[in-house]
Design goal:
mainly alpha; about 170 residues; elongated
């Protein structure tokens, strides 16, 4: 049986763990289970569906961006002394980065949709604020301010999970 108490613990710990490089994946899994618990408790499957879309699109976007960087890094050694080849590598890198960033932006939109629904159903408005920071961070990711906004969103996400009540008032929960 789903409970908000379990979701609060898993989500809060997962949000803290996902702020660090070496524990990110475990934190992500804990947040995934927490969102599933919340969706089951509330009885809204769209919350989990949107969160899964967000996860898949963000992972794919990040893999595309990292893959394009390593591909360019591999080819740059062969291109030294040939400016037209370097320009071609940079052009290709820009397109792949744009595609990856676009997927991340769409994924963050799904995250916002999921967290907004959680905020409305639970009354913890910090979920909406955290999602907004993530969305703005994705928009401004090519500028330094984007990474700062993502960090603020991560901290707010942990605060939101820890701010979940143990039970919702009224007939919604349980």
């Amino acid at each position: 049986m789903a409970s908000l108490k379990t979701a609060r613990t898993w989500g809060g710990i997962g949000a803290i763990m996902s702020m660090f490089y070496f524990t990110y994946f475990l934190g992500f899994i804990l947040k995934l289970f927490a969102v599933r618990e919340i969706a089951e408790y509330i009885g809204n499957r769209k919350i989990m569906s949107d969160y899964l879309w967000a996860a898949m699109l963000n992972i794919t976007g990040n893999l595309i961006m990292v893959g394009s960087f390593y591909s360019a890094w591999d080819r740059i050694g062969e291109a030294i002394g040939r400016p037209e080849e370097i320009a071609s590598i940079i052009h290709s890198l820009n397109w792949w980065f744009f595609i990856g960033a676009f997927l991340i932006l769409i994924g963050t939109w799904f995250l916002k949709s999921s967290y907004d629904a959680i905020a409305v159903q639970t009354g913890v408005r910090t979920f909406s604020t955290a999602a907004l920071m993530y969305l703005l961070g994705a928009v401004f990711m090519f500028f330094f301010i984007g990474y700062f906004l993502i960090l603020v969103g991560a901290v707010l996400e942990a605060m939101a999970f820890f701010g979940l009540p143990e039970e919702l008032p009224g007939p919604t929960g349980g």
